[in-house]
Specification:
Layout (H helix, E strand, L loop, with lengths): L5 H8 L17 E6 L4 E8 L7 H13 L6 E8 L2 H12 L17 E7 L6 H14 L4 E5 L7 H5 L6 E3 L2 E3 L2 E2 L2 E5 L14 H14 L7 E5 L6 H9 L4 E6 L3 H17 L3 E7 L3 E2 L5 E2 L6 H13 L5 E5 L3 H8 L4 H4 L4 H15 L15
Parallel strand pairs: 2-3, 4-10, 4-11, 5-9, 5-10, 11-12, 12-15
Antiparallel strand pairs: 1-2, 6-7, 8-9, 13-14
Helix pairs in contact: 4-12, 6-7, 8-9
Bound molecules: adenosine-5'-triphosphate (ATP).
The site of adenosine-5'-triphosphate has 21 residues, from helix 4 and helix 10.
């Protein structure tokens, strides 16, 4: 059988997607050489962005797999090299080309990314679990999704997503690790061990600003921000840094929880943001006999929705009620979000229903300039 042509080899490599940059390696200047000898043995030289790239194994496997699929290929040898400083800066310029001016790309007028800041009145209501599951559900539908773990003191997103890898740096650009097709950045990826982060407002603001400017997310359909509980500095920073962000409020059914959650949502009035909806978590527990038990009371989500609608003077929808489910907690503990690991479970079904609503929400025009002026 004839050895494959150079064009066929390149076409095969064009199907290999860089795991961090989510673009074909051929477009990223990562293919230095590829050639086949008469016996069908292929040699591919691939340039990594940095030495010791944590994804070298994934890239090598991807290249080998893509080339082995070609007719006439009998073996593949992958050699890894590292980009020169010049090549890295060209790559950075290429990636930044879609966002020429320095700043937060999500604020560009042309940006169509929907931004949801997930807030809660108090801790432990499941805000982070809801965030990662909604993100994974939307990514599984084919949307391009990112998460900024802005819960700076209590970061938990990397664990819930099963990410242990640290972000790769290309000069001053930071490439976020990807898990379950979602790009994730968290302060937890920059601290060693389980050290507490003792930062005050201005430092938090700068950290968040850096995440939003220097982290290369590329074009996203949806960006989630997992906020710390309550109405602290981070919520205000998010409103300032991302004025288009809409607030998703997570609460439990308990009346007292709804009271505190109302404050987290009502911040929208001061910041001029929209409230995208309310999610009630831990709504009930299904017992082995099939009956349900309302462990934390009932009605909190509905009450919160009604009160927030009055406060923000717009209809706020109760997007869904998620039951208590051991599988949800277990999935979180091992980094396997329930919407992917156990999609048939009742909690996953509720989360998938909410994701569906978010996926089809029309872009709101409230508060946005329509570019027309009255005569
Ligand atoms: N519906 C649910 N069923 C069972 N366990 C749940 C459910 N929702 C959340 N949990 C569990 O509750 C705990 C707290 O959840 P999570 O960390 O998502 O809350 P949080 O509001 O983000 O907390 P914090 O604000 O303190 O970070 C986790 O162990 C999680 O697995």
């Amino acid at each position: 059988m004839n050895a494959p042509t150079p064009a066929a080899l390149h076409a095969a490599l064009a199907t290999v997607i860089d795991p961090e940059l989510r673009r074909p390696i051929t477009e990223l200047g990562m293919v230095e050489a590829v050639e086949a000898d008469d016996d069908g043995r292929v040699r591919a030289v691939v340039r990594l962005t940095i030495a010791g790239c944590p994804l070298r194994g994934t890239i090598t496997r991807g290249v080998t797999h893509a080339l082995m699929k070609l007719d006439g290929v009998t073996a593949v040898d992958v050699e890894l090299t590292v980009m020169t400083a010049q090549q890295r800066s060209e790559l950075r310029d290429q990636l930044k080309a879609s966002a020429p001016e320095r700043g937060i790309p999500f604020n560009a007028e042309s940006s169509l990314t929907r931004i949801y800041a997930v807030a809660s009145g108090k801790g432990g209501v499941g805000k982070s679990s809801v965030t990662v599951n909604l993100a994974c559900a939307l990514a599984a539908k084919g949307l391009r999704v990112g998460i900024v773990d802005a819960d700076i003191y209590g970061f938990s997103v990397p664990g819930l997503m099963g990410i242990t890898q640290t972000p790769t740096r290309v000069d001053e650009m930071i490439l976020p690790p990807v898990a379950h097709d979602v790009k994730v950045i968290s302060i937890g990826m920059f601290v060693t061990g389980n050290q507490p982060v003792a930062w005050r407002g201005p430092m938090l603001h700068r950290a968040l600003e850096q995440f939003l400017t220097d982290v290369y997310f590329g074009d996203l359909d949806v960006l989630f921000l997992d906020l710390p509980p309550g109405t602290g500095d981070v919520a205000i920073s998010v409103a300032q840094l991302l004025p288009k962000a809409e607030i998703l409020v997570v609460t439990t059914p308990q009346a007292a929880a709804a009271d505190v959650a109302e404050r987290a949502g009502a911040i929208a009035v001061q910041t001029g943001q929209k409230v995208a909806g309310v999610i009630e978590n831990m709504s009930f527990l299904t017992l082995p006999d099939g009956s349900t038990m309302e462990l934390f009371g009932s009605g909190g989500g509905a009450v919160l929705t009604k009160r927030l609608s009055q406060t923000v003077n717009a209809t706020v929808e109760l997007l869904g009620q998620i039951p208590l489910d051991v599988a949800l907690r277990e999935g979180g503990d091992i980094g396997a979000p329930i919407v992917l690991a156990n999609p048939e479970s009742p909690a996953a079904a509720a989360l998938l229903g909410i994701a569906e609503k978010l996926a089809v929400r029309p872009r709101g025009l409230a508060g946005m300039s329509l570019g027309v002026s009255p005569r």
